[in-house]
């Protein structure tokens, strides 16, 4: 496991060792001590499976840290700084395969788009799920996220998220 800083404070891109074997591959996706060094004490492991490319989720900032990694397929991840401060609204994007992971601290918005059929997406969190979250419009022109050139499918809930300007006003009110 090798962690690399990204343009957004606290967000780490992580290279995982993927070891080929005669049947496919093996990776150590979770190692408690290694994640604890990043400041994460995992309490829940969630898995989401997506049959088709172009499925989009987010942009959500939850009250927990996340460790994200696909175990099959590929995803395009868009990460947005939603914590108050000068970097508010900063965007970083990543393409993640099975040998990649991201560590996303609480308060930072995260979203993804499946790039391949049969994508399985794992995320570990350090707090149990709650409905509390901050969200922003996936297609806000101020964010200017260059989403993959695919037919995109997303939920009505995500489509109704506020713009970055509206969120900024809500957070500073």
Automatic annotation (TrEMBL):
Domain of life: Bacteria
Stored InterPro entries: RmlC-like (IPR000888), RmlC-like_jellyroll (IPR014710), RmlC_Cupin_sf (IPR011051)
Keyword Iron-sulfur belongs to the record: no
EC number(s) per entry: 5.1.3.13
Single GO MF annotation: dTDP-4-dehydrorhamnose 3,5-epimerase activity
Keywords for this protein: Isomerase
Protein family according to the UniProt entry: Belongs to the dTDP-4-dehydrorhamnose 3,5-epimerase family.
Descriptive protein name: dTDP-4-dehydrorhamnose 3,5-epimerase
Species this protein is from: Kribbella aluminosa
């Amino acid at each position: 496991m090798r962690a690399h800083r990204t343009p957004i404070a606290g967000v780490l891109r992580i290279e995982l060792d993927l070891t080929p074997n005669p049947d496919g591959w093996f990776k150590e996706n979770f190692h408690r001590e290694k994640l604890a060094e990043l400041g994460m004490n995992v309490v829940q492991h969630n898995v989401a499976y997506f049959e088709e490319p172009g499925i989009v989720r987010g942009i959500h900032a939850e009250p927990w840290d996340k460790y994200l990694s696909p175990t099959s397929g590929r995803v395009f991840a868009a990460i947005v700084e939603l914590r108050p401060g000068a970097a508010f609204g900063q965007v970083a994007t990543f393409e993640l395969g099975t040998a990649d992971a991201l560590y996303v601290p609480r308060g930072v918005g995260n979203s993804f788009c499946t790039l391949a059929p049969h994508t399985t997406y794992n995320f570990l969190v350090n707090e149990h799920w709650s409905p509390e979250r901050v969200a922003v419009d996936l297609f806000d022109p101020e964010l200017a996220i260059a989403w993959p050139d695919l037919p995109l499918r997303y939920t009505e809930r995500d489509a109704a998220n506020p713009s970055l300007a509206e969120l900024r006003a809500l957070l500073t009110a």
